[in-house]
Design brief:
By secondary structure, the protein is of the alpha/beta class. It has helices spanning 37-48, 61-71, 83-94, 111-118, 136-146, 166-174, 228-237, 245-255, 258-282, 306-315, 335-349, and strands spanning 24-25, 78-81, 101-106, 123-127, 148-154, 179-183, 204-209, 222-225, 288-291, 298-303, 318-319, 321-323, 327-331. Bound molecules: 4'-deoxy-4'-aminopyridoxal-5'-phosphate (PMP).
Length: 354
């Protein structure tokens, strides 16, 4: 007798994006700000007080309440996850009957498609416009044509860094009976959120995360915000103790200090603007043909021979993300990291290096 794994597992490989030690890491859209020593002490104290011999609160009520207070939503509309990645996976498995179809956009966050393949859910991918924006009319036309039950996309978008105005997102949600999963992982950096109206729709789930502006990627805390009916389904479908007690306690401490959260966000936005300014100054230099307007904490740039530029940066100890041979995505880092990146990129583009 021999066990043969399911064919859908054949192409799976563990997610392991970093394959080396780099001096400067601008590849994962994380925050470059570590919580201050005082903040870390408060977090450690909160973790210390946890009953580690007991299971955590399955609904992470304290954490959800802190999230709800900071973002001005009702706690009854919030579900916590082990990162928003986990929530994407739960949504794919809980909200679709076998064979029901999902619509994703391209380019967009690659994990959407990955989770549809694990869930054996047919996934239709619609190309964005030439300007790399979602085309709401095209999406609304495609939904009935392809019998789509769920649309998922990020706004602002990873990797393009571009944002779709709230009015356009509303037009999409209002125009369909499909479930719209709106991934606002980067919306702390822009002002077009639909969080305040999430519970007014019967077909909307908004995803948020503590991994970007809040600066807690290591803790794995993500949230879904939706009306109480959809929230009830999410809470029932997730695994019971999906967010561990240490994460609940620590992330709660951080989210409870609204002024500190806003100040951190402002520093990340300032770093982004600095990076964007430097990149814009290089636009048109050699291979760098376009820098897109960023609504996130990273920049997205089009260049000829992106792989060569990526490799030259990597050789200099600076890691960014490369998309095909056409685009680079660069996370805004600390001021000295941005300066080092811009300096090296300038040299590479002017062919003095790499
Ligand atoms: N959505 C988008 C658009 C992202 O870029 C990311 C992280 N790269 C995630 C979701 C996942 O975030 P988390 O760390 O909360 O799982």
């Amino acid at each position: 007798m021999a066990y043969i794994p399911a064919p859908k597992t054949a192409a799976l490989t563990p997610y392991d994006p970093i394959d080396g030690d780099y001096r400067i890491r601008l590849d994962a859209n994380e925050s470059f700000l570590l919580p201050t020593a005082a903040e870390r002490q408060a977090m450690a104290d909160a973790a210390f007080g946890q009953a580690l011999n007991r299971y955590p609160d399955p609904l992470a009520r304290g954490l959800c309440a802190a999230f709800a207070a900071y973002y001005g939503v009702r706690p009854e509309t919030v579900t916590a996850g082990n990162g928003s990645d986990e929530l994407i996976s739960v949504i794919m498995s809980a909200f679709l009957q076998k064979g029901e179809r999902v619509l994703t956009l391209a380019p967009d966050f690659s994990m959407y498609r990955f989770y549809t393949s694990i869930a054996e859910t047919p996934c239709v991918t619609l190309e964005k416009t030439a300007a790399l924006l979602p085309d709401v009319d095209a999406i609304l036309a495609e939904i009935p044509r392809q019998n789509i039950r769920m649309v998922i996309f990020s706004n602002p978008c990873n990797p393009t860094s571009l944002g779709l105005p709230a009015s356009e997102v509303r037009r999409l949600i209002d125009g369909t009976d499909a479930l719209v999963v709106l991934d606002e992982a980067y919306m702390d950096f822009w002002d077009q959120t639909l969080l305040g109206e999430a519970a007014d729709y019967d077909n909307l789930i908004i995803l948020r995360t503590c991994s970007k502006a809040v600066g807690l990627a290591a803790l794995r805390a993500g949230f879904a915000v939706a009306n109480e009916r959809l929230t009830g389904i999410l809470r029932a479908a997730k695994s019971p103790y999906n967010v561990n007690a240490v994460t609940q306690a620590m992330a709660r401490v951080v989210l409870s200090d609204a002024a500190a959260c806003r100040a951190r966000r402002d520093r990340l936005v300032a770093a982004r603007d600095e990076l964007m300014g430097g990149l814009k100054a290089l636009e048109g230099a050699g291979a760098l043909t376009r820098v897109y307007d960023s609504r996130t904490n990273f920049a997205f740039a089009r260049m000829d021979g992106a792989r060569r530029v990526f490799g030259a940066l990597k050789d200099a100890g600076i890691i960014v993300r490369c998309f095909g041979d056409e685009y680079l995505r660069i996370t805004a880092g600390a001021p000295e990291e941005n300066a080092a990146l811009l300096d090296m990129l300038g040299k590479i583009l002017h062919n003095r290096q790499g």
